[in-house]
Amino acid sequence: MNVLIIGSGGREHALALALEKSSRLGQLFIAPGNAGSASVAETVALDASDHAAIVAFCKGEGIDLVVVGPEAPLVAGLADGLAAAGIACFGPSKAAARLEGSKGFAKDFCREFGVPTAAYERFRDSDAALAYLNAKGAPIVIKADGLAAGKGVVVAATLAEAEAAVRSMFAGAFGAAGAEVVIEDLLEGEEASFFALSDGERALAFASAQDHKRVGDGDKGPNTGGMGAYSPAPIMTEAMTARVMREIVEPTIAGMRKRGTPFRGVLFAGLMIGADGPKLIEYNVRFGDPEAEVVLARFEGDLLTLLNDCARGVAPSETLRFSNKAALTVVLAAKGYPGTPARGGEIRGLARAEAMADVIVHHCGTRREGGRILANGGRVLAVTALGGSVGEAQRRAYAAVDAIDWPDGFWRRDIGWRAVAHERARVATPPLSEGAAAESRRA
Ligand code: AMP
């Protein structure tokens, strides 16, 4: 089978590495990819928003399956364009991608199909939104309805902060994405990311992860696209996974089918696990980045067969096999990120890091110039390692990070701290986290 991956980040490099392991793979292409993915897949200069050009390329090269990494092309209808041309796509249709493309749609959907989530209201004008805020008080959460590259959410501790967020969204801070605003109650508990695959009919529990969104150690400073992650999430025990499938994922897959917009692809549920059980914070309709790096590092099955079955709406024939090791990834970002990152510095020592046992250096924003690898973006590398515990994966990942010489970069030194503290508190028990045990048993 010939496969085209759409995207340019660490997630797409991880997808390329996992797909490459399948004995069914013919040619692997990636558009536009990066310097790391270029060693596994042929790089193609295609613009993800130019659906006609992607369809033409697929026809010309005999592509059997397109795997879409990021959300924007899915929300814009790339899967529909490919389907119309008879090309299978792993990633939902435009109608099903609204689960991520419109927070208001996702909340109304949860209400209709009984998916537990924070109480909320939708607003199209600022006066009504401000009146609601005054009635509810703080803390409270304000969200731009549309895609805002992860920046359209304000968790407001005070009413003044909440009012400022509402005013700035209606004043156009997020463009059309903020023309509608969702205001919802603050959820309390521990966050986890959960990934389920679906062929439109069935839902398959895939894996869990936890990420670190804040730029600085101790989870301080502004939000980013993600500075690191680990898998599995210790809080996603076998019992909690079963509950999330029953209460959140399965009603969603059934609801989408009932609406006539079956969901095919990976459903990424951002969860808050509180005292009264799991609640949905938000849906994404693709793998997370950097969560994909850790989840796919642990996956040992035939990803191509699995994604292809989901894309074609047939019951997945591939069984899920995961390493019972934990995976942890540390993101190396260019100084200045998440503001304007410095560009172009040379990165050395990559071969030394890659040669270490159980280490994968995922490229996010890099480009090759002659024999040199240069930084080319905000998040530049995701250095990933496996280990018998999150603590061991953390030690290996940081040993690899320390082998890399990149004066223009910075990274957090504490990725995985919560899970490592959890492991230390349970030294008397086996080194495997409960989540890893649950995932390997399920596999
Ligand atoms: P989202 O883009 O909806 O995932 O929101 C980004 C982050 O904001 C989440 O990862 C949470 O940390 C936080 N967040 C969003 N909604 C809520 C909520 N209702 N209660 C608490 N935290 C939230």
What features would you describe in this structure?
With about 450 residues, the protein is α+β, with helices and mostly antiparallel strands. It is about 35% helix and about 25% strand. It contains 15 helices and 23 strands. It has helices spanning about 10-20, 50-60, 70-75, 80-85, 100, 105-115, 125-135, 160-170, 240-260, 290-300, 305-310, 350-355, 390-405, 415-425, 435-440; strands at about 5, 30, 40-45, 65-70, 90, 120-125, 140-145, 155, 180-185, 190-200, 205-210, 215, 220-225, 230, 265-275, 275-285, 325-335, 345, 360-365, 365-370, 370-375, 380-385, 410. The strands form five sheets. Strands 10, 11, 14, 15, 16, 17, 19, 22 and 23 form a nine-stranded antiparallel β-sheet that branches. A hairpin with a 3-residue loop joins strand 10 and strand 11 (about 205-210). Helix 1 runs parallel beside helix 10 and helix 7 (about 125-135) runs antiparallel to helix 8 (about 160-170). The chain starts with a strand and ends with a helix. The relative contact order is 0.13. The protein binds adenosine monophosphate. Adenosine monophosphate binds near residues 141 and 282.
